[in-house]
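Q: What does the predicted 3D structure of Amidase look like?
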Amino acid sequence: MSVDESQDSETGAAPARHVGAPAGELEGLAEQARALAEGRVTSTALVRRTLERIAATQGTVNAFRRVRAEAAMAEAAEADRRLAAGERLPLLGVPVAVKDDTDVAGEPTAFGCAGEFPPKERDAEVVRRLRAAGAIIVGKTNACELGQWPFTEGPAFGNTCNPWNLAHTPGGSSGGSAAAVAAGLVPAALGTDGAGSVRIPAAWSHLVGIKPQRGRISTWPDPESFQGITGIGPLARTVEDAALLLDVASGNHDGDLHRPPAIAAREAAGRDPGRLRIALSWKAALTFTRKPLHPDVRAAVTGVARTLARLGHFVEEAEPDYGLVGLAFVPRATAGVGEWADRVPDRSLLDRRTRGAARMGRLLGGPVLRRARAVERRQQSRIGALFGPYDVLLTPTTATPPPRIGTLAKLNGWRTDQAMIAACPYAWPWNVLGWPGLSVPAGFSADGLPLGAQLLGPAHAEPLLISLAAQLQDDLRWHERRPPGHPERLDGVPR
């Protein structure tokens, strides 16, 4: 069935109370980088403002697990000296954040777990690349325990809340990074995505979130993460900012198992995608569980499809052949949980669901895990057949709006899995395939909660997805909306 491009493309728009004023000064990653290079602001001012915002919201949003206040201010002063001397780098002096599964020298990597963790001796490769581009790492953001769930809550750090409505989750597991960007604490942040953990919080926090091609951003000191299903990706308010962070973070370490060819993401954000053939799919991969689609999500994604048709693309409903892709996901995911659990100093502090997943990973290791990985090429061939007649696959990012805080956190393992699959059935197959996906804001629920639409492509398709997302942003202007109470301006912050 073709999408009727004559119908209203504003389905799911935010209620008036969530529509912010015009964009504040110097709120974006690219804008901050330009302002620093032109001498319109100092890194010291930007980092000080960031730290003040983090401190002011830790009791409400609670986005950060670790804040590098003293170190970040010292690094900002050094960035100002370098800028004054004429040095220019893509992000010289710009404050950003990383998720607490990513090593930062001198900081522990607890990945949502309780207990005392030793500080890391050296940066992860992606952090090294951020620093090489001049970025200031202001802190590490909260994530649920070992990244397993689409919420960011736990006894180790409390509840991370959605800036659009503090009673709801921003999603997970990169919920801290998403909340930090949505609340205006940092202009962009990195997360990791093993089953939608960048795309889900992007959808539920009104952000752009990119899951790149496997290996696009190095996971070193791990040659691959979670048996290859997890990758690192950016969260930002605009496509340009997400693409800029992707460019800066991309690249490989000699020890990486996956090394895709380089792309120019930010360049793609400024390029017309051409007229594309887009498949609109409502079908989720088979999991033998109920996955009802919330009517507000269907309306919002239908609105995106109509916008794409109005922009000149051919859009029709078509479904990929997912087969039994879930049978390949579970052994890899649980093996990854087991590998991370072995790094925890005191495993008795782990959530009972984490201990159960680690046991399952050990049970499914060996021959079962090897078979799960061996069928990947066949799965790519079967699902990838869609990309003969079509260029891009459009789906909901999630099946529901963001749940209330506590909805999933206190369930047992089985019930958590069922609730998680019901809320988030659309993202994880692309982690098995290792292919790129991108979530964009699709509007809001009747209750004013953010919703997302997912653009999916075949291997190495990030430039096409980014170009298409940028075209959508130019039309829908989602980046001009702010959560209630968002700090809009730099006014009053000294240079």
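A (community wiki): The structure tokens above were generated from the sequence. The CA atoms of residues 353 and 412 lie 7 Å apart. The chain has 16 helices and 13 strands.
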